[in-house]
Sequence to fold (169 residues):
Amino acid sequence: MILKTPICTFDAKTGILCNMCENKLAAGQITNSDVEGSIVLTKLSLKNPEIDKMTLIASKEIDNEVILFFKSSDFRTIRSNTKLIDLIRQGFKKNIWLVESDSNDRRFLENLFYPIRIDNFNFIWLPDGHKLTRVVIDKKINSIEKITLERIKKISLSLKKIELVVDTE
Ligand SMILES: [Zn+2]
Fold:
């Protein structure tokens, strides 16, 4: 088994895109962060047989935060293995977020909030027809979490167009 990424294995190993991947990039089917994420993860996969079995669906970067979309089974493998998480974090040298590629908005938010639990999830429609997504989390928001919350809001908005409102019980 060999790690699958948004670009060819050979490209990810050499860091040079073939014509096909170059065209995908030009057409906007993949982004520079997909390319960078593929290269970094491929480097890690050479040292780690578990990563080598995985599929990276996409890698997005927002304000220096890297969001890695994995196949659900791979996501679960990584989440249950702190050594793997540390290895990936060190490889990217950036703050990383792990999410499942085939998930709905609620699951996407649960992935971002983890280990904080989402107790409730609903929508708020404003009089102008604007939709907000409201989540209730099981923790009080302290100063550190506020930074995390701002990041989660930014990521949700740019990747999923989710306008997030966060409440605590
Ligand atoms: Zn290629």
